[in-house]
Amino acid sequence: MKTPPWLNRTVLGIGLASLFSDLSHETASALLPAWLATLGVEAAWLGIIEGVSDGLASFAKLASGHLTDRLARRKKIAVFGYLVTALGTASFGFARTAWHVLAARSFAWLGRGVRTPIRKALLAGSVTRETYGRAFGFERMMDTLGAIAGPAAAFFLLRLLHGDYPRLFALTAIPGLLAVLSITFLVQEKARARVAAIAFGESLRQMPRAYRRFLVSVFAFGLGDFAHTLLILLAVQKLTPALGAVRAAAASMGLYILHNTIDAAGAITTGWLADRWNKRRLLQCGYLLAASMALAIVFLPPSLSSFAVIFALAGAAKAVVETAEDSLCAELVEASHHGMAFGVLATANGVGDFVSSILVGALWSAVGTMVAFGTSAAFFLCGAAFLVRMKDPPAATSVAD
Q1: Are 158 and 168 in contact, with CB atoms under 8 Å apart?
Q2: Percent of the chain's residues with pLDDT above 90
Q3: How far is the C-alpha of 135 from the C-alpha of 326, rounded, in Å?
Q4: CA-CA 20 to 30 A from 252: which of 46, 276, 314, 390?
């Protein structure tokens, strides 16, 4: 069987690294709330830990993207980022106070932020323009498979090791280090000319106009793009009167598995479509799928079948949006500036996600789900509308098989 030209060593190595790294930190993330509870830490600390870590990661993505285009070789920095994430995650087990967990999580997420734009730039540089969609779709699929396996691994190991959290967190180093090895031995970095060092603002101004308009659309969409874990809380609350607390919690976990499964399958499908269709219009479809999901929350009755539709739409929208955004970003910007482009994209997404989750949560508490998710749908539709004004990049001359 002939290997597809886009599925080369580098694409496979980056895909495996995403799978193993996500398996590592999703396992740790699933265990973290219970570990904090055993330490006697108040629930508010979890929000502080997540917020500070995400903020540092967003800053690291921006700085990494800006600086790495100035380097002739950047694979070693990606390896370093994966190593820092693996060691920081495994060190959760040494924590004895909330401050220790905050420091370890921040250290791990700094490494995650540093590696993200480099990983995407290496991925884009390893394939042709005509196969960006499939390459990024494959990476997204592998990442999501790790996100599915992580909570399952946490559940299994928690029972097997009878709540020995230090050993559980230490075991997360195994997939974390496998991610490091995947980048080290499989990824092949092509020689490249360094970009001249200029100020960040000037670098952004030199980006194509279509890319800057793309960022406006991404940020507008991101203002409504709440964390999908809020869907779990919503499902539990709405289904408990009919199913009871225990069955509602179990059903919500099953719905989230459905969400992640559709996300994984949809990512590789979206990648295939992105190489054969207009990427901007495909991204619009993703934004409209997200709007349909939010409107379904507002208008559908709170039943198990309704939530199955909502979680399925959420998983499909996530797959389309993330794959189409990355492949369109790579197409809009010259390869020599991919690091900067992906760094700014990741930061725009990170800031938008942070604001949206706070906004939707606050509106939900203050005035109810109809206003909260209706507002989210409005931002999704704004993102789709802004894409209409964006000029398409030049068409590819051919499509690889």
Answers
A1: yes
A2: 35
A3: 10
A4: 46
What's the token pair of residue 197? 């060092």
pLDDT digits (tens, 9 = 90+) for 292-309: 999 999 999 999 999 999
CB < 8 Å & 24+ apart, contacts of 230-234? 230/357, 230/360, 230/361, 230/364, 231/255, 231/256, 231/259, 231/307, 231/310, 231/311, 231/314, 232/256, 234/297, 234/369
First to last CA, the chain: 14
Domains and CATH numbers, the chain: 1-188 (1.20.1250.20), 206-391 (1.20.1250.20)
Cα→Cα distances 177→25, 86, 117, 205, 333, Å:
12, 6, 20, 38, 32
Give the side-chain half-sphere CA count within 13 A for 191. Answer: 0
Structure tokens at 150: 């992580």
- What is the pTM (predicted TM-score) of this model? 0.77
Nearest-angstrom CA–CA distance, 358 and 349: 14
Q: What token pair was written down for 196?
A: 């001249």
DSSP 8-state assignment for residue 129: G
DSSP, collapsed to helix, strand or coil, labels residue 118 as helix
CA distance 169 to 171: 5
Residue 172 DSSP symbol: T
Tokens 């734009």 label which residue? 117
One-letter amino acid of 28: A
Model confidence at 55: pLDDT above 60: yes
CA 180, CA 159: separation in Å to the nearest integer? 28
The Cα 306–Cα 313 span in angstroms is 11
DSSP-derived 3-state class of residue 19? helix
Contact (Cβ atoms closer than 8 angstroms) between residue 338 and residue 125: yes
The CA distance from 165 to 328, in Å, is 42
